[in-house]
């Protein structure tokens, strides 16, 4: 992002618009997104025990996976239209509301870069299961929001997309972990 874009982002999250993304901007962004989240937040904590208690067992044999119809929202994977997204039934309605909001807004192009939801695998570089193993996480626009690219200085996920997820209580990895801005998960 340019300094002008960072200043605009800082104004949007309610902090001093100096064009330098640092600890004050990070804290303001997190506070802004947290302020959009429902209270109480409907999602579990991100620990493995809490995830199993809420979502059940992960993977193909776990209960709760379903196909969410997204055929009318412009979702694309590698340029091809996506008709259905496999996700957990407990977060399906919420995910559809987010996708619908994004599809109606100025950042709908992000949906043309869908990169997956359900995928039974561990977190990158770790042994614990990813939220993808439950179908409770989605990746969008990886080309501009790589796992190690710091948001917003190197990654380009629009704040408006993060806000859409926050209104449903989803965590935006870019805002909370300053990297992996493509990743959103139904946890608090």
Overview of the molecule:
The chain has 188 residues and is an alpha+beta fold. It is 34% helix and 14% strand. It has helices at residues 3-13, 23-36, 48-55, 89-104, 159-167, 173-177; strands spanning 65-69, 76-77, 80-81, 84-88, 114-116, 137-140, 171-172, 183-185. The strands form 3 sheets. It has a 4-stranded antiparallel β-sheet. A two-stranded antiparallel sheet has the order 1-4. Helix 2 (23-36) crosses helix 5 (159-167) and helix 4 packs antiparallel against helix 5 (159-167). It is globular, with a radius of gyration of 16 Å.
Give the secondary structure arrangement, pairings included.
Blueprint: H1 3-13, H2 23-36, H3 48-55, E1 65-69, E2 76-77, E3 80-81, E4 84-88, H4 89-104, E5 114-116, E6 137-140, H5 159-167, E7 171-172, H6 173-177, E8 183-185
Helix pairs in contact: 2-5, 4-5
Which blocks of ≥5 consecutive residues have pLDDT under 50? none
Rounded mean pLDDT is 95
Helix content: 25-40%
- Individual helix count: 6
């Amino acid at each position: 992002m340019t300094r002008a874009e960072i200043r605009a982002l800082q104004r949007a999250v309610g902090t001093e618009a100096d064009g330098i993304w640092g600890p004050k901007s990070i804290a303001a962004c997190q506070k802004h997104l947290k302020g959009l989240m429902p209270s109480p937040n409907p999602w579990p904590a991100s620990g493995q025990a809490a995830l199993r208690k809420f979502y059940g067992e992960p993977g193909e044999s776990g209960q709760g996976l379903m196909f969410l119809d997204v055929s009318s929202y412009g979702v694309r994977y590698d340029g091809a239209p996506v008709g259905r997204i496999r996700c957990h039934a407990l977060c399906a309605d919420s995910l559809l509301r987010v996708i619908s909001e994004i599809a109606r807004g100025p950042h709908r192009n992000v949906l043309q870069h869908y990169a997956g939801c359900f995928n039974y695998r561990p977190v990158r570089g770790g042994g614990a299961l990813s939220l993808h193993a439950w179908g409770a996480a989605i990746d969008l626009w990886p080309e501009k929001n790589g796992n190690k690219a710091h948001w917003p200085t190197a990654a380009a996920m629009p704040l408006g997309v993060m806000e859409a997820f926050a209104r449903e209580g989803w965590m935006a990895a870019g805002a909370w972990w300053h990297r992996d801005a493509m990743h959103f998960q139904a946890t608090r």
